[in-house]
Amino acid sequence: MVDIARDPAILKRRRRRQVAAGIAGGLAIIVVSVKLSQMEPAPVSVERATLLLDTVKRGTIIREVRGVGTLVPEDTRWISATTDGRVERILLRPGAVVAPDSVIVELSSPSVEQEALTTRLALQSAEASLANLRVQNQNSLLNQESAIAAAEAEFKKAKMQATTDAELAKEKLISQLTLQTSEVNLELSRTRLEIEHKRQATAQEALDAQVRVQQAAVDQAKGAAALAAKRLASLKVTPGFSGVLQVVGVEVGEMIAPGKSVARVADPMRLKASLKVPENQAKDVDVGQPAQVDTRSAVIAGRVSRKDPAAINGTITVDITLVDPLPRGAVPDLSVDGTIQLELMANVLNVGRPALGQEESTVSLFRVINGTGDAQRVQVKLGRGSVSSIEVKSGLSEGDQVVLSDMSNYDSHDKVRLR
């Protein structure tokens, strides 16, 4: 076979076409790459039915906080032992209706019983001594009155003798010495009578002082006896007011000391709601604010009556005094929900409370883009909030539709497509 030489011009043109084709292909690849880099990635799809959406609106919202708790009695009293003793009998059990003088528990204490007997006998002795002293004083006064009577008789006799002697002396029938003797006897009897009167006054004062001393001893003995009798009576533990017995904290045979809590009694007709409010929401709760308590069978109006000064386990206890009558079946320890009205905010831009939105914070929410079915992430500044609504300070406009559901699974996406 004979090789045929190719025309160099043809080879040159072929190489040119190959180079041109390579350059065109490279340019096409570059253009396509640039276009692809400028295109946005397709947004992730989310089922619209699984999301909670709300529309931003302007209007009035009631700022509220919510808490859960129970109904508790307004009047609850622990009945404590006032003396030491041994539990002999438990007469009533929890749930019993009690009167002020109902005996719940009976105690025994030999020392208390002995003290009551001793003080009672001491009182009787003191009262007998006082009576005896009064009798003695009466006799002393009678003796003194007798002495005064004798002195008065002696004075009258001396006076009559002196008068008679004076008349006889005028007639020169007796001597001047006899007259002077009669006058001296008169003066002596007068002095003796005055002394007896003074002795009677001082004796009365002394006798009164003795009676006061003995009366004080009687009063002291009476107070000791009354205290001992009260301690003896306290061996029968009574509530002191009407109510329902809730707890008996002792057992038969147990030795108890003064101050030991024996039983708890509450008035079931006067109940209040004790709510646990999250501490970050309770800062604006004040006494006197209106509230509503849901007992599951009725909603009762009330007012804040007390707020704990410190938080426990992340909550603050708030007491609600009920204004409306309790519904039938409302009993202590019944679980309730409560809503406290903090303030009324008029003409504010607001939206439903987002799942992760807190008061006075900035959050990212997905705003629905009208006409495309997509939702774009936007930064929203929130203000004061209520139980179900929250104020919008910036980032949204009236009429915007936003997703309130938890979208933390899409933190890496700025746009989602709602199907």
Any chance you could write out the topology, listing elements then pairs?
Blueprint: H1 8-38, E1 44-46, E2 53-55, E3 57-73, E4 76-80, E5 85-90, E6 97-98, E7 105-108, H2 110-170, H3 176-233, E8 236-237, E9 243-248, E10 255-256, E11 261-266, E12 271-278, E13 290-294, E14 299-307, E15 315-322, E16 335-352, E17 362-369, E18 374-385, E19 389-394, E20 401-403, E21 415-418
Helix pairs in contact: 2-3
What series of H and E elements makes up the topology? HEEEEEEEHHEEEEEEEEEEEEEE
Shape: rod-shaped
What is the CATH C level class of the largest domain, in words? Mainly Beta
Q: If helices are DSSP runs of H or I spanning 4 or more residues, what is the number of helices?
A: 3
User: First CA to last CA: what distance?
Assistant: 73 Å
User: Order of strands side by side in the largest beta sheet?
Assistant: 3-12-15-14-13-16
CATH architecture term of the largest domain: Beta Barrel
Mean pLDDT: 85
Low-confidence stretches: none
